[in-house]
Amino acid sequence: MAWFSKKPRIAVDTQQQPEPGPSRMEGLWAKCESCDEIIYRQELEKHWMVCPHCDHHHPWNARARLATLLDPSSFEEFDKELEPQDPLGFSDSKKYKDRLKSTRKNLEENDAFVAGVGRIGGHQVSVGAFVFEFMGGSMGSVVGEKVTRVFERAHELKCSALIFSASGGARMQEGIFSLMQMAKTSAAIARFRTGNKPYISVLLHPTTGGVAASFSWLGDVILAEPKALIGFAGPRVIEQTIRQKLPEGFQRSEFLLEHGMIDTIVNRKDLRAKLGQILGLLG
Question: Partners of 114 in the beta sheet?
Answer without folding.
Answer: 129
